[in-house]
Design goal:
single chain, 9-stranded mixed sheet, 4-stranded antiparallel sheet, 15 helices, 18 strands, about 20% strand
Length: about 475
């Protein structure tokens, strides 16, 4: 057994011996009402940042609270051995509002451990899963390494944000202003989850986004359907026809050039996905659906993780209130969003979408567009040694093969790290689908917290062993 392996065994034993103390520290953090979107909680956010900086300083980090135009950042640095990789760990300390409060079974900022009939335990509190419990798994892993061996096996920079739940307005300026200080070999992001309660996961693909709103206008005012119905152009009918033409009978998007830049998953990663215990019928059945509506020649997991989409998120026009009103509306509107993958260009797709609408607009109609953001998809280098090392560490801890999975949505920080700091992200988290993040009665499994800390301890050792 190497010296690093021996050290790891001691670190894991220390984590097990100090579980109660670690849980007590997490409870202290969970009691802060760090709701970033509400200005009334600005003091609470500041106090949370100060508490985290103090905790990091207590385990050997050179840590400080950094002022921004909004809520503060927390930055900490700890030197590792010469030649060891330098890692950036990211998490966020802010939380979602707790409304509606009446649906909480316990006070949201009074954390408690609940025991189920089968003996399993969970931590109940706002922020328990998103993201305080997650970030503290890493802090506790660092604490155990420091207390057991006197040092971390890698150089580590920590970045804790206080505005993730309110759009991160200060994040990009902060990354740009501190580019040199924060650029490392690899970022680690803990705001993700497990495949299931017993199977750890590393998220390696993220879908990007292109959002747009269209308004089709015709007559100068709403018209009586008896007096104008027939000869007058109806914008709802026009817009409905345009939208209906964007998908064929096989679920594919018909927009010219839409699939340019789509990258197929490798045979190895596709084989991993096919081997996952996923029941498409159960997945859809949980929301009272029964048949996959996407591309007919793709599995549901492929549709979610590696295929692009064009969806209609809202369509309005005419009278939508109580009762009935026989009008031809003067305008109709739709909001669309495209989930993007691989090298798809969100602005090229926006241009193609708008051109398609204009080409299909009949006489007497005009159109306006309003953009709602755009970002490309992300594919992380899961075949690299660092990702394989982390996967091996997770597999060793959980006793089940860690899965390389995709994420159907977006995690903007991963793109910012690539674009601004030029580094990829290792996305490892221990949340579960039923953690009720953003909802009343948010929870985090006690096993996720305790085994998550052990997992990060192993990951640090595995990455250090590559140096």
């Amino acid at each position: 057994m190497s010296g690093l392996d021996q050290a790891l065994e001691g670190v894991l034993a220390r984590l097990d011996a100090e579980r109660e103390a670690a849980l007590s520290r997490l409870f202290q953090l969970l009691r802060f009402e760090s709701i970033s979107t509400d200005p009334d909680y600005a003091t609470d956010c500041r106090q949370t940042a100060e508490w985290l900086a103090t905790e990091l300083s207590g385990i050997g980090f050179d840590a400080s609270v950094r002022v921004t135009s909004g809520h503060p950042m927390v930055v900490g640095h700890a030197e590792g051995p010469d030649g060891a990789p330098h890692l950036l760990f990211y998490g966020h300390y802010d939380v979602q509002p707790v409304d509606p409060l009446e649906y909480w079974n316990t006070p949201p900022f009074e954390p408690a451990v609940e025991v189920r009939e089968d003996g399993s335990q969970l931590i109940r509190a706002r922020g328990a899963s998103d993201d305080k419990g997650q970030l503290m798994t890493f802090v506790e892993a660092c604490r155990a390494w420091r207390e057991e061996t006197g040092a971390l096996p890698c150089s580590v920079t920590v970045l804790f944000e206080g505005e993730e739940e309110s759009g991160s307005p200060s994040l990009v300026p902060f990354l740009e202003a501190h580019r040199e200080e924060l650029t490392c070999d690899l970022a680690m992001v803990c705001d993700t989850g497990m495949w299931d309660a017993d199977t750890p996961a590393i998220s390696v693909t993220l879908r990007g986004l292109m959002g747009d709103e269209v308004i089709v206008k015709a007559a100068s005012r709403d018209l009586h359907s008896g007096g104008y119905g027939g000869p007058a152009t109806n914008p709802i009918r026009v817009l409905s026809k345009i939208l209906a033409g964007l998908h064929d009978d096989q679920g594919r998007v018909t927009l010219p050039g839409f699939y340019d830049g789509v990258v197929e998953p490798s045979p190895e990663i596709k084989a991993q996905w096919d081997a996952l215990p996923f029941d498409a019928e159960q997945f859809l059945g949980s929301v009272q659906l029964s048949h996959p509506a996407g591309e007919a020649d793709r599995s549901v997991l492929e549709q979610l993780w590696s295929r692009p989409t064009m969806e209609f998120n809202g369509v309005t026009g005419g009278y939508t209130g109580q009762g009935f009103k026989t009008v031809l509306p003067a305008q109709a509107s739709a909001k669309i969003s495209c989930r993007l993958v691989g090298d798809q260009d969100p602005e090229a797709i926006r241009t193609a979408w708008r051109a398609y609408v204009r080409e299909n607009l009949p006489t007497d109609c005009e159109v306006e567009f309003f953009p709602h953001g755009g970002a490309p998809g992300t594919v992380l280098p899961y075949e690299s040694p660092s990702y394989e090392a982390a996967r091996g560490a997770l597999t060793a801890e959980w006793g089940a093969d860690a899965a390389f999975v995709g994420c159907g949505g977006s995690i903007p920080i991963v793109g910012y790290f690539q674009e601004i700091l030029g580094m990829d992200s290792l996305m490892v988290g221990f949340a579960l689908e039923d953690d009720a993040i953003h909802s009343p009665n948010e929870k985090y499994e006690l096993k996720s917290f305790q085994t998550g800390a052990r997992s990060w301890a192993r990951i640090l050792a595995a990455l250090a062993a590559r140096s």
